[in-house]
Amino acid sequence: MPVTGLRADNVKGMTFQETLTGRDIYVGENGVGKSARLQAFVFGIQGYLPSPFKKGLGDTFQIASGDAMSVSIETDEMFSFSRQIRRKTTNHKDGTKSYSYTSACSIFPDQGTKTNKDRERRISQAMGGFAVMFDLDEFMSMSDTKKREFVFSLSSPESYGWDRSRIYEELCESLGHAAPIEWNDKIPVAENISSLLEETSKKLSDARAVYKDKQKVKVEVIEMRQRATQEAVGDIAEIRGTLKSLREKRSEYDKEIAKAEEIKRQHDSLRDRISKLDKSRSTLDEGTLPDLGEAEKKVSDGNKGISMSEELAEDEEEKLDGYRSQLSETQEILSNTKEQLARIDQRQAIRDQINIISAKGCPLMGDQCESDLSAYKGSLEEKWQGVDDEVKILREKRDGIQADCKQIEEWAAASSKRLKNHKGCLKEWRKAVKGADKELVEVKNCHNARELDQLAVESEEELIQDVRSNLGAIVDTGMAVKAVAGIMDQISELEEKEKKAQEIKNVMANFDQANIAAAEAEEEVETLAKLRKALGSDGIQAEILKDVIGPLADTVNGLLSQVVPGEKYSVEFELYDMNGKDTFEIIWPRKIGRVSYNTLSGGQQILFGAALMIALILQADPPLKAMCIEAAELDAENFFSLLDALDEIAGGIDNILIATCNDKVIEKKDTVADKWEVVHLD
């Protein structure tokens, strides 16, 4: 089931889509996406990338850009699928970040698959999950041990009856007990063994470090034990018993000293109280009190002044109110008189009519009027005289009323001034009474305080008398203090002995613990070392290689024979050197003798490498037989030799993808165009 189409999103920062012919070469400088296409192909087929990446999603996600990566695969049998890995970032309160990864896949046609696990199983059934990622330059420079590990990682132990049960039984037999391994049924046997070897080697390294630390602790404890034995100070229980007795004795002395010091303190306190009492008596005898009667008289006089000022102010306010009322009534009469005067004062109008008659005659018809107006004029003059008399009377009345208003206003102003003076006096009297009240309170306080002081002195005299009658005599504590000092010296000496005795006891306990810990660490190292040996080149791995290597050599020789028809190849794999140590040497018997792989020409090494990879794929026999070859640094001659070899021996391989930097391939593109699709990336 060859792959015909490849699409990748966010792989090494690139998104691309390729149509695959089965024989595809990608040419270009570094960084244009050659390796990205090979890695995307392998990820699509296997679901992860092989070494140097591990099989965790986070390890494979290292080639992704952004938070998601996906690859889609199409085949020539109308079957297609895609894989995707997503990353979720979690920001923590301490500023750190953590990442989690999820994978998903889809297939077409889905054939009733419901879960992601079902789809993974369907892809594995259709494709096999075996795509060899082969770096020619790296393989040619590998040591024999690395070549051995590489060939083992691509071998198919399952084809020779090696499964989980058989391997577990072999390990248990080698170890003599149950093998502490964790098997992953999702990956091939060879990958399981390689993973177990890597994990066991790491655990063994950690266990050896722990064992080294435990041994160091054990040596230190032994040295401490030796020193402790030399510095033995006696039985710790006996020491603690003596300490208890001395501490009790010291406690009794401490109580006696404390009691004597308390009596002395009470005597000192009594002397202080007597001294203070004497000072209080002296103060009472010498002090003079302010006159209470005088202070009370000031308050009384002030209150009388307030009463007198309040009476004068009230009288004056009554007078002022009378003046204001009288003024209001008089102003109202004046206003009425002015209005009356304004109504009757028509003298100017009458005079104007008289003047007109005197000058012109009839005010309406003038000279044409023939009437006698002298009588009318006389009546107007009489009327004018009457109005004039009445106006003069009213004016005299008005002037009199205005004089009355002015007099009343003057009386009111004088009264208001006297009221203000009375209120000022009232304010001053109140201020004086307030000060006198305050002074009276202070005087009373002085008298009360004197009475309280007198009572306090009398009470203190009685108390002092009681204390003096009950107080014991002062005792000298000098001897007791010296005795306590001697006991403290003994206690200090015994505490130091107790400390050393406890250290010795701890050392003895630590010695047993250190021995046990060192023994357990040593046992862990031995178990892991046995497990690594049982898994590695002296154990399971070697047994599998023995089964695999013969048929593998036959397949390689058969493929090499196709390159040069008629020539028989007999390449051999040696797993052990002359001293019996494990190795992995590739021997090519020639007419000149047995030739090591490392002494072959570059072309011969390339030819063998290609044959070995194809043989490994054919042995695994997956539904999809594919290989990806990194040939970045191969020169033109060797590169075309590789193509010629693949043309001859890779007929059973469905897909071959090659990445190279050699631009000669572009120049000679036409020479290989009938068999290879050359894609120039820039």
Descriptive tags:
single chain; 682 residues; alpha/beta; Helix Hairpins; 5-stranded antiparallel sheet; 17 helices; 64% helix; flat; Rad50/SbcC-type AAA domain-containing protein; coiled coil; P-loop_NTPase
Overview of the structural elements:
The protein has about 675 residues and is an alpha/beta fold. About 65% of the residues lie in helices and about 15% in strands. A five-stranded antiparallel sheet has the order 2-1-4-5-6. Strands 7-11-12-3-13 form a five-stranded parallel sheet, with helices on both faces. A hairpin with a 4-residue loop joins strand 4 and strand 5 (about 80-90). The chain is flat, with a radius of gyration of 65 Å. The two termini are about 30 Å apart.
Give a short synopsis of this structure.
By secondary structure, the chain is α/β, with parallel strands linked by helices.
